[in-house]
Design brief:
Order of helices and strands: EHHEEHEHEEHHEHEEEEEEEEEHEEHEHE
Number of helices: 10
Structural class: alpha+beta
Largest sheet: 12 strands, mixed
Shape: globular
CATH topology of the largest domain: Rossmann fold
Length: 363
């Protein structure tokens, strides 16, 4: 664990410290933090290179201007009412946009930054009552946190938490609703310098839809996919493959990825919509996929990260499927011991269905 005080220390002092630490530290994750700080304060180049997550294809290299990254950082700090002198927690890798922006927010907003080696249980190193104002986690990390009573109690001492990278499952959402901390799910991508919208998940002011940050506009194209206009983020007109429903001038509901759309008898089905409907019925990681029908079109499949199903578990799945409308009911369940995931925990759907150990008929 290391602590960097961007609030009290001057920029020249931070630069001097970073250069000194680069010669002394041995762990890669620490070197990444200090090297990024050195690169950030170096006036040349005026851009930072970032790679996409690779969840929908090969990772792509993107260049972001430091000015646009500063604007994004200020947007987040303003939206979450983070003040100079606040303490932020970094437990994400600083070779991805999520970790990079935690450092940039701390620099731009003059915050204190506590850095921890990225892991699935990042709060293990923190004291019993950590004094943290702001933290970002992947849902996988936060799931690991809530599995431990001591770490769950530590999380209650983090005032504001953002989650990003994948959907929040039912078990995790139930735990989030028990937290006193403000917890938000984010919507964004590497191309938009992390998130462009937030949705509060708990508390009396929880949100039904994502709320777009000021200075950013969203609308739909002819495919019902989101188009983002964020010129100050370097994206004057970004066409995405995210299918959305526009719920107001600054609000939207995310329905799924057009890449994942399933054609069943001429009807377009969004797997993510069904996955949301099954949240409370299934604890193990899962997703909806499809197989071609002999008669044409596609049949739905529930892909489950599990080695076997007990008879009672099969019945629970049948009950859950029967509660869905007819076209949304999976015809088969595919069991896969371990899903293929990206470095930040996103499930790679196409790769994960390649080696099932069993396929069970539910039609």
């Amino acid at each position: 664990m290391l602590e960097i005080d961007f609030f009290s220390q001057t920029d020249p002092a931070i630069i001097q410290l970073a250069n000194k630490k680069l010669l002394a530290v041995s762990e890669d994750w620490e070197k990444q933090v200090w090297q990024f700080i050195v690169n950030w304060f170096n006036p040349e180049p005026a851009t930072i290179s970032v790679f996409t997550s690779g969840s929908t294809g090969a990772p792509q290299k993107i260049q972001h201007t430091k000015a646009a990254m500063m604007y994004s950082a200020q947007q987040t700090c303003t939206a979450l009412k983070l003040m100079p002198g606040s303490t932020a927690l970094l437990c994400l890798p600083v070779n991805k946009i999520s970790g990079i922006m935690m450092v940039v927010r701390s620099i731009c907003n003059k915050m204190k930054l506590v850095c921890i080696k990225p892991s699935t249980t990042p709060l293990d190193e923190l004291p019993e009552k950590p004094n943290i104002d702001f933290a970002a986690f992947t849902p996988m990390q936060f799931h690991g946190i809530t599995k431990s009573y001591s770490n769950f109690k530590k999380a209650e001492h983090i005032r504001k938490i953002i989650l990003g990278g994948e959907d929040v499952r039912a078990e995790l959402l139930d735990n989030i609703l028990r937290l006193r901390s403000e917890v938000y799910i984010t919507f964004g991508m590497t191309e938009t310098i992390s998130h462009i919208a937030l949705k509060r998940l708990n508390g009396p002011t929880s949100d039904k839809n994502f709320k777009v940050l000021p200075g950013i506009s969203v609308f739909k194209d002819e495919r019902n996919c989101m188009v983002i206009e964020a010129p100050l983020l370097g994206q004057p007109h970004l066409v995405t493959n995210d299918v959305v429903s526009i719920e107001g001038p600054n609000e939207f509901k995310w329905l799924g990825r057009i890449d994942n759309v399933i054609n069943s008898g001429g009807v377009k089905i969004y797997p993510e919509e069904i996955e949301q409907q099954l949240l409370k019925a299934i604890e193990a990681p899962y997703f909806i996929s499809s197989k071609p029908k002999k008669s044409g079109g596609e049949k739905l499949i529930l892909v489950l990260e599990k080695n076997a199903l007990k008879p009672e578990e099969k019945q629970e799945l049948r009950d859950a499927f029967n509660a869905l409308e007819k076209l949304h009911r999976p015809a088969q369940v595919m069991l896969v011991p371990h899903f293929t995931r990206t470095a930040n925990g996103k499930i790679k759907r196409k790769e994960s269905v390649l080696n099932p150990i069993e396929t069970i008929d539910f039609s």
